[in-house]
Write a structure and sequence with these properties.
By secondary structure, this protein is mostly helical. The chain has five helices and no strands.
Length: about 130
């Protein structure tokens, strides 16, 4: 039951962060591309890489890992929304934009994990 509470609490924070980020990006970016989903996916991936790299050096309890990775980041990033938006583009005949959406999200998110992981190392050196 304790694990579920950690995940649920993290999930509540993650969905709140996603809502706030969506609102901010929607206010500042307009167009046919789904910038809101792209932004939360890249930020979540960057955070996942950074925290994973940090947790390789600093010991963190399994419950804290669940809270962050399953709860916060699981609720922040949104593969189902990304998939649905890609479907909408394909349904509407915008195949080039759909392909761009798939490539941009996947390439940027994988790159963000690597970047986050590698930038965690200088950060760790500050506190070690």
């Amino acid at each position: 039951m304790e694990k579920i509470l950690f995940i649920a609490t993290g999930g509540a924070l993650g969905t709140t962060f996603r809502y706030l980020i969506f609102g901010f990006v929607e206010k500042h970016m307009h167009g046919v591309f789904f910038w809101e989903t792209f932004t939360v996916n890249v930020l979540g991936s960057l955070m996942a890489g950074f925290l994973w790299g940090t947790f390789e050096t600093f010991s963190v309890s399994p419950n804290v890992r669940l809270f962050i990775f399953v709860g916060i980041l699981g609720a922040l990033t949104t593969f189902s929304t990304f998939s649905l938006e890609t479907f909408y583009l394909m349904r509407d005949g915008q195949m080039k934009l759909a392909l761009l959406n798939v490539l941009a999200n996947n390439v940027a998110c994988i790159a963000a994990v690597f970047i986050g992981f590698f930038i965690s190392k200088p950060f760790i050196n500050i506190f070690n």
